[in-house]
Amino acid sequence: MADHPSHDPLAGVPFDRVPPAGAYGVTGEPGIVASTADEPFIALVIARNGHAASVAGRLSRAFGSEVADRPRAAITAASTVIGTAPGRFLVLSKTETDLPGTLRALLGAEAAITEQGDAYVAFDLAGDKVPELLAKGALIDLDPRVFRPGDAATTVLAHVGVTLWRASETSWRVLVARSLEASFTRFLIASGAEFGLRLDGRAPGRG
Amino acid sequence: MSAPNRNRLASGGLIDRSKPLAFSFDGTDYHGYQGDTLASALLANGVRLVGRSFKYHRPRGIFSAGAEEPNALVELRAGARREPNTRATVTELFDGLEATSQNRWPSLALDALSVNRFLSPFLGAGFYYKTFMWPASFWEKLYEPVIRRAAGLGRAAVEEDPDHYEKATTFCDVLVIGAGPAGLMAALAAGRSGARVILADEDFLPGGGLNAEAGDVDRQPAPAYAAQVTAELASLPNVRVMSRTSVFGAYDSGTYGALERVSDHLAVPAPFQPRQRLWRIVARRAVLAAGATERPIVFGGNDRPGVMLAGAVGTYVQRHAALPGQAMALFANNDGAWRGMLAASVAGAHVETIVDVRTDVAPALVAAAQARGIRVLTGAQVIATHGKTLRRIEVATATGRERIAADTLAVSGGWSPSVHLTCHHGGKPAWNETLAAFVPGTCPPGLTVAGAAKGLFGLGACLRDGAAIGAEAAQALGFAVPAPDLPDMADEAFALTPFWHVAGSKGASFVDLQNDVTAKDVGIAHKEGFRSVELLKRYTTLGMATDQGRTSNVTGLAIMASLTGASIPETGTTIFRPPYTPVSLGALAGHHRGKDFRPVRLTPTHEWARAQGAVFVETGAWLRAQYFPRPGEKDWLETVSREVTAVRSSVGLIDVSTFGKIDLQGSDVGAFLDRVYINGFAALAVGKARYGVMLREDGLVMDDGTTARLAPEHYVMTTTTANAAKVYQHLEFCLQALWPELDVSLASVSEQWAQIALAGPRARDVLARVADGDVSNAALPFMGAIEGSVMGGVKARLFRLSFSGELGFEIAVPARHGAALAQALMQAGAEFGITPYGTEALGVMRIEKGHVSGNELSGQTTAGDLGFGRMASTKKDYIGRTLAARPGLTDPDRPSFVGFKPVDRARRLRAGAHFLKLGAPPDMANDQGYMTSVAYSPHLGHWIGLGLIKRGPERLGEHVRAYDPVRGEEIEVEICAPGFIDPEGVRLRG
Amino acid sequence: MRIPCPYCGERDAHEFAILGDATLTRPDPAAPDAETRFHDYVYLRDNPAGAHEEWWYHANGCRQWLRVKRDTRTHAISGAVAARADATSPRDAA
């Protein structure tokens, strides 16, 4: 019996380079559309001892969405605030060009601010098959009946540490450490190939 | 090719006669149908000899119809996809299937090694232990290769597996294991409540025993009832039916392991489908409905092809419409086997004889058999078999012996509930006298057992119990369960007389068919004192290998019990560990094989470095540039020496983004640093950095690095690449568990900042062209740390630090600008011949400079050993201070850090060489320490080393031997101070 | 094994690193017998068969250090609290 070809969606892609944009896996309408962005502005807010509730309240008022001291994503058109640990919030903004400055002005001595805009690559995943794809790397329950829009988790996907949240009924976002972009993209392609995965080019971020 | 199979019934069964499937066995072409297993298709084609036994190479046939199969192991597929030891009984037939028998040479019919049979007196229990005791040297060269060829299973493919595998995790409220009558009803009851249910079944067709059942359930054929329930389950959005999925292990906290054979029933996986998928199923409750396994009776010649479990005969006839033979006999001790054979007879099987060890068989059964023309022998035993494949059985009755023609002998000694998963947390099964079987004992938390797996052997009872247990599982989780609509089923009485072994057998009587363990071997083990179950197993190999004794454990135990005179429960229990069925290594690895074994971290300048021709090296999870060869360079040493020389004479750059970088903010950071570093940090001025050493609480060095104070309440710490995660975790422990009152916030910024080290006498000239502000010695003195910008407005942190011993800077920019910074520095340094260098040159320069690194921070060295003794503050407490003062860690005889030069400068030093005094013999008593790091120093033109030697700093100038027995080398070396270059640090401060 | 992280919820043990006995308290370094006490603190461990309290670090989650009550015989986990006093919002404890 002649050996049949294997269907390796990563054949010929160097392991140490982010795989190029394009269609991977089965042909036809992709079950998953993945895109990445240098999220414009990200900062980590760490409430100082005793100030978590107050910080959450100030963030809620400033960003116009209920921020709680738990693993949830408070989402508006311009911003997302995600609880990652007690008293810790990752703030993503599309508009605040000096996000750390804005946050320092907002929170004063109640919080320590750390710029993280370059630490992560943000993956946007859309499509019905996203939960099935993520289940191939996740150790948490991402069943769409359980993991609802606005739910967030800091966890691992295929041994890569991530913060992920469900942005809407049909879209999920995953923050991945910049150094792991290539490995994580390989996981997405290998796991999404059976559904067909379209990887879109990097959305333009700030320069 | 679609002519009817020789032994196929004209109608009936769950096969699709309109879908013939071609396959081959040992090169001969056959065909079967959709719905066949390889075993049922072979039987339908009249193939009865399928393999040779493990040890004696005896001919073997198909023995069972399930996962318990000990005999019919074949190699499946060919080339890179060749898979050994697959059980023909659970291999779903597909078009083009290619199977080969194994463990035979030169052919299955004529096996040269079957002479092993005549050696069987020597190959009995304990043979490995007795025969090959000496001489020991013969083992590897002679015994093992011969045994490996003579006794064995199939051959693995030698090429890389072309298929891919994956892993996935899923969650449910109720996991139902097994889709037989109990499992289907359990899933239905739980599913109708709205609970998230997973029903996992190893077969490709849900239904279990219902698919081999001749009678009706709910006024329709049993298989149709199974299909109806399955269809309802599939229609429920909260229920997931997973066929071809074996739950193989029960792990902690309701986690179950399962293997889904996604593509094993296809010649080649569909495009981009995995071959298999390993599931981690997290279930709040689980229902084990794994059914039961029939067990044989042990008698002479019971391994002959044609001898088969009675339930398997029923399955082949009812489900596959395949006749295992043309003249069938039954040998049994229970009523269930009779009913199965009568049903097979009705379906068209030629059942001619029933032999039962009992004298009190129910008259109704006997009458029913006789009404079908079946000869009945009660109080009788099969004592021998004859024929290459079975032709005749020899039966002992009350009146004498008789040979009866039969090409198939169905055997049933009763049933063993499949309690395997109940044992995975250490629970022991309990002996049930009535059933003569082990039933579940203590189960893993959250798991309950239903149906035949707990010893219910009636179909009606299994259906009712499954519904009740499934409902109970859902109710326990708060789901409201609607009343079940149970099929009306009355069960026939269960009647069995325990019977294990025909004592007056002629010829070898096999207990364990897969391992060729006979009743005599159990007797030998008993005589020689290996009477506990665990010893019996290891001495005779009973219960080992791929079937793990599914059909042999209880029988072996019973025979041992009869020999010792003890009861079965006194003799022992069978304990099962995961996995329930074999799991391929590919599935366990999933996506993580080859270069995807684990995630790889790439530096911000990775692509840039590649363009520069870098050779990369793995350092932990990171891939770093090791060196940058240029055309014409003959080896790495030439390249590295060029890079070092370029830095020392002009300027070079290296990406050091891999260092751990931690931002510390708060009013107590200074106090905190004082507690985690041996040296003082509270007085560190804003704009300055300081080198620090951290200990573990046991007093040994954990890590080193620099911490800079960027603002009054803002510091940034660097750690070594290797210890980044460990140090962060340690600091969090200190803050959360030891000193929660401190106002300190930690944030890892390792990914946020790209960091490039610029070193060499022209470093400042280069930096000045890239930096937006003043980087003069006044603005950025040695150990200075400032925030500013580079490249016309890119935010930057600038540090005046040096690992190389040269004038050095480290420039940190937001990571997305890392590659641009490297390019800008290259451009700015072009006129100075700026040279990118890798980790090798970095290592050479730190050794020339006498800095410690990972080789010295080995977890066995103290601050004092490494020459940092005077750095340690005596004015404060810090982690590790108390135990660092222990006599064992302050012994002046401890090997301490110094440098080494070869006395003959032409010779090469070796890391790992041990130091001996001149003339001292090489033994442990004379061991003085060892060489930790070596490098060829282009600056000095010879090899240099760093190492730890007893009282090193007191012995500068002394000559010792560097003894390297691994390479067979011995070199006389001179002890020197560890700084080989610019020991006063003039260059640093330039 | 799954550990109920007070912040993240129940998580697989793969996300955690274990440090060991959480019933020990770092000794006072100023005590006259500090060396003996530190020796005990660093090296001497009870190894109970049954209920135990251990430090687990949620490395791939919220990075909290947790005190986890675990039965060493069965791996049954009866609870977990953050090292900082208040489990759900420890930093508000002050």
UniProtKB/TrEMBL annotation, chain A:
Signal sequence, start to end: none
Highest taxon, organism lineage: Bacteria
InterPro entries linked: SoxG, TrmE/GcvT-like
Pfam families assigned: SoxG
Protein name in the entry: Sarcosine oxidase subunit gamma
UniProt organism field: Ancylobacter dichloromethanicus
UniProtKB/TrEMBL annotation, chain B:
Record-linked InterPro entries: 2Fe-2S-bd_N, FAD/NAD-bd_sf, GcvT/YgfZ/DmdA, GcvT/YgfZ_C, GcvT_C, GCVT_N, Sarcosine_oxidase_asu, SoxA_A3
Gene Ontology molecular function, alphabetical: sarcosine oxidase activity
Ranges for domain Aminomethyltransferase C-terminal: 897-982
UniProt-listed Gene3D superfamilies: 2Fe-2S iron-sulphur cluster binding domain, sarcosine oxidase, alpha subunit, N-terminal domain, FAD/NAD(P)-binding domain, Probable tRNA modification gtpase trme, domain 1
Keywords annotated in UniProt: Oxidoreductase
GCVT N-terminal domain residues: 606-876
The SoxA A3 domain, residue ranges: 507-590
A Pfam family annotated for this UniProt entry: FAD_oxidored
GO BP term, pick one: tetrahydrofolate metabolic process
NCBIfam families found in the cross-reference section: soxA
Family recorded in the similarity comment: Belongs to the GcvT family.
Protein's name in the database: Sarcosine oxidase subunit alpha
TrEMBL record, chain C:
Superkingdom assignment: Bacteria
GO-annotated biological processes: tetrahydrofolate metabolic process
A Pfam family that the UniProt record links to this protein: SoxD
Record InterPro entries: SoxD, SoxD_sf
GO MF term (any one): sarcosine oxidase activity
Protein name stated in the entry: Sarcosine oxidase subunit delta
Organism: Ancylobacter dichloromethanicus
